[in-house]
Amino acid sequence: MNMITQEAKKRQAAVKCVIKTGKGNASRQYGVSLSSVKRWCARYDGTWQSLKDTQ
Question: DSSP assignment, residue 32?
Fold first, then answer.
């Protein structure tokens, strides 16, 4: 599993955490900014591929 895949799967776990406990908690638990969590939630379509960087 490469770094891109690992990062996308971490983001997916954070989004799933949002569903259970909220954005603020997910942000703290995964050590990322609240704006990143919000951006990931907006992009998430149910697959980890949707959370890969688009650069």
Answer: -
